[in-house]
UniProtKB/TrEMBL annotation:
<dbReference type="GO" id="GO:0008234">
    <property type="term" value="F:cysteine-type peptidase activity"/>
</dbReference>
<dbReference type="InterPro" id="IPR039417">
    <property type="entry name" value="Peptidase_C1A_papain-like"/>
</dbReference>
<keyword id="KW-0378">Hydrolase</keyword>
<feature type="domain" description="Cathepsin propeptide inhibitor">
    <location>
        <begin position="41"/>
        <end position="98"/>
    </location>
</feature>
<dbReference type="InterPro" id="IPR000169">
    <property type="entry name" value="Pept_cys_AS"/>
</dbReference>
<keyword id="KW-0865">Zymogen</keyword>
<feature type="signal peptide">
    <location>
        <begin position="1"/>
        <end position="31"/>
    </location>
</feature>
<dbReference type="InterPro" id="IPR013128">
    <property type="entry name" value="Peptidase_C1A"/>
</dbReference>
<dbReference type="InterPro" id="IPR038765">
    <property type="entry name" value="Papain-like_cys_pep_sf"/>
</dbReference>
<keyword id="KW-1015">Disulfide bond</keyword>
<dbReference type="Pfam" id="PF00112">
    <property type="entry name" value="Peptidase_C1"/>
</dbReference>
<keyword id="KW-0732">Signal</keyword>
<keyword id="KW-0645">Protease</keyword>
<dbReference type="GO" id="GO:0006508">
    <property type="term" value="P:proteolysis"/>
</dbReference>
<feature type="domain" description="Peptidase C1A papain C-terminal">
    <location>
        <begin position="125"/>
        <end position="293"/>
    </location>
</feature>
<protein>
    <recommendedName>
        <fullName>Cathepsin propeptide inhibitor domain-containing protein</fullName>
    </recommendedName>
</protein>
<keyword id="KW-0788">Thiol protease</keyword>
Length: 293
């Protein structure tokens, strides 16, 4: 009986819904949609503590929010992908604004300086690798609104090899790189390259810890006292031969690896979980770290 009633109830709702849509004029439909997205925008503002300087700015941000949310809704509705999109803290930013403030990898092409490749003869590669499960990856850090992905990428790879060589997982300092590393292309929040960061770290004879030189997410002056403590060091680095997934697999089977990706797309802005299989360009603009396959 209960289930029959429920079924009946569902039919009533469905009927009502169709009826409501049926009588709704085009103009008032848009108004209804606006009202509902407006409510979501308001809740979202509370959730992420967002405040706008005036109503004009709020109107502008609402329009962007609406476009993004409707697109995420429709992605979810036809969800046949192994990854999800969600309304995150970037929902009132256009894709251009989002990539401009965060994707600070300045390479735009893979470097081709490879002369040797440490893992070229690696064989019997495991079918899956997850360095997080082996305790070689620190918890996810947030670069905030500073385009120093290059520093996070380099530090995560270095945290990984430090764990593999010393047995200790130590969270290392991105801010030290932001403030102190002016090698090559490295310009703090304005972008940089992982290779330049590794060169800096090598020459600097190490890097200090996150707790001694904590992340601030803005450019600062190099604190030479804090920097003087070297918690971990590297003796060198190599590039994985470009355009070879086999080579990358060999490297990742042996350690976490800094890589650059094209993270400019809408799906990247709102990625919320799962295995990303969306379209991905070749305009490398973001430094990240591969921690498994
Ligand atoms: C889309 O799916 C995700 C994951 O299930 C969920 O968190 C989100 O609320 C859904 N809708 C929107 C608009 O984000
Ligand atoms: C990489 O290759 C290009 C094209 O062959 C060449 O012009 C460039 O000098 C090379 N860069 C380095 C760092 O070797
Ligand atoms: C890989 O094997 C070849 C052939 O034995 C050898 O010449 C080369 O040095 C090896 N490479 C590395 C990085 O050990």
């Amino acid at each position: 009986m209960a289930s029959k009633n429920q079924l009946h109830h569902h039919f009533t709702c469905l009927a009502l819904l169709i009826f409501t849509l049926g009588v709704c004029e085009v103009a008032s439909c848009a108004a209804l949609e606006d009202a509902s997205v407006n409510e979501r925008h308001q809740q979202w503002m509370v959730q992420f503590g967002r405040v706008y300087k005036d109503t004009k700015e709020r109107q502008k941000r609402f329009q962007i929010f609406k476009q993004n949310v409707l697109r995420i809704d429709s992605f979810n509705a036809t969800n046949n992908k192994p990854y999800k999109l969600g309304v995150n803290q970037f929902a009132d930013l256009t894709n251009q604004e989002f990539t401009a403030s965060r994707n600070g990898f300045k390479g735009h092409m893979c470097s081709n300086t490879t002369t040797t490749f440490k893992y070229e003869n690696a064989t019997a590669l495991p079918s899956t690798v997850d360095w997080r499960k082996k305790g070689a990856v620190t918890p996810i850090k947030d670069q905030g609104q500073c385009g120093c992905c290059w520093a996070f990428s380099a530090v995560a790879a270095m945290e990984g090899v430090t764990k593999l060589t010393t047995g200790k997982l130590i969270s290392l300092s991105e801010q030290e790189l932001v403030d102190c590393d002016t090698k090559g292309e490295d310009q703090g929040c304005e972008g940089g390259l992982m290779d330049d960061a590794f060169q800096f770290i090598e020459k600097n004879k190490g890097l200090t810890t996150e707790s001694i030189y904590p992340y601030k997410g803005v450019d600062g002056t190099c604190n030479t006292n804090e920097e003087a403590n070297h918690a971990a060091k590297i003796n060198g680095f190599e590039d994985v031969p470009a355009n070879s997934e086999d080579a990358l697999q060999k490297a990742v089977a042996n350690q976490p690896v800094s890589i650059a990706i094209d993270a400019g797309g809408f799906d990247f802005q709102f990625y919320s979980g799962g295995v990303f299989t969306g379209s991905c360009g070749t305009d490398l603009d973001h430094g990240v770290t591969t921690v498994g396959y």
